[in-house]
Amino acid sequence: MFGKCKQLKSINLSHFDTSKIESMHSMFYNCENLISIDISNFDKSKVTTFRSMFQNCKSLKSINLSNFNTPELTDTSYMFYGCQELTYIDIFNFEMTKLIIMSFVTSNVIDMNRMFCGCNSLISLNLSNFNTSNVKNMDHIFTNCRTLTSLDVSNFDTSKVTTMNSMFYNCWNLTNLDLSTFDTSNVTDFYEMFQGCISIESINLSGFNTSKLTSVYNMFGKCKKLKSINLSHFDTSKFESMQSMFSNCENLISIDISNFDTSKVTTFSRMFQNCKSLKSINLSNFNTSELVITSNMFYGCKELTYNDISIFDMTKLTIMSLMFQYCEKLISVNFPKTKAPNLYKIGSLFNNCESLISVDLSNFITTNVIYMDNMFLNCKSLTSINLSNFDTTNMTWIHNMFNGCTNLKYINLKNVIETNKITKIYDVFKNTHENLVICLDQTKAPILTNLIKQKRLLYNIL
User: Fold this and answer.
1) 10 Å Cβ neighbour count for 75?
2) What is the torsional sign of CA 76, 77, 78, 80?
3) What angle do CA 391, 393, 387 make, to 5 degrees?
4) pLDDT band at 102 (very low <50, low <70, confident <90, very high)
5) Residue 355 to residues 27, 51, 250, 297, 358, Cα–Cα distance (Å)
6) Dihedral sign, Cα of residue 307, residue 311, residue 315, residue 317
7) What's the pTM value of the predicted model, to 2 decimals?
8) From the CB of residue 48, how many other CB atoms can be counted at a distance below 10 Å?
């Protein structure tokens, strides 16, 4: 009705008879300059939806909903979305309240999607009186409530909820959450559920039932102050993706995921990326029979010194690029004895692993690999590397492969075959040891041979 009346600051609706109104969907949508509105006289007894009612009312500072009688209400999604000036919501009718919703009857509500999304100034929110027994969708309900420090959802009945995507996304100032009472037995997706909760130190998920869950993409992404979390009760038997699950948990010291069933998981991409404080990780029980992608899996795990992935089944693995990049204290990696016949990308695999002493890649089958660029870039502690098993017939990028390996004295590349598919081959041996010995067939690798000549290492070609 008043949607996009962007200059409207106030309006008198005290004479409105709303006794027959069934929908208030988007009634004040995008009234960006609306400061206050008195709808205390409204009869909402037949209203079924408040969807987007005050969405993007960016200047709204107070609203009185104390007389709301809402027995037919089913949809409050987007209701306060983008109400950036609301700072406090009190459902117990405290004095000096800005928003009173104590008399809401929410028992019929099924959709709360984005209800408080974008309430950037909201500090405290007590929803302990909400009846959410029929709610199915809680996607983004508190997304971008960046100043929210206190949130009581202890009485939420979530038994019918199927999706909680981005539920607490970018709640920057929340320090702890107790969700132990949540019934998540019907939830299928926790996509970015706590992503961006940069101040969160404690999350209690002890009551979570994850038996229907298939994806936890970025679930704890950027929970920068989280040091530990108990997931020992998680049922991961249906998980297909663990991509970015703990990405950028910079203070996470240890995590026990030894109980995880990973038999259906296809990707671990960015799973522990930038977990800068993580010192050890036990993956000994992982079943990786369906695993396809491990790119960036341990990227930036600067405190990790040893990684045992010997249990991994690599038969379906195609992309391992940047898997250990910037693992600056990593000394060695224990790869599995099984073959990896489907590898496609392994570029930057050990990029800037400055402490790496040795690595055995003898089971890598590289027939299909096209990218090997930056593979050992700045591996300053590496003294020798045997890649004699590498098939390079499909290789296109090899640039910077050993650049910065200042202590590298021996490389076995005897089976390297250059083809016209190669497009980037510069700085392969730049900044390597002055007495580097390279085992290479000059007739099969003329471009590499030329690079060696430029470094005046021709006499070291065997």
Assistant:
1) 23
2) positive
3) 25
4) very low
5) 62, 56, 21, 18, 9
6) negative
7) 0.84
8) 19
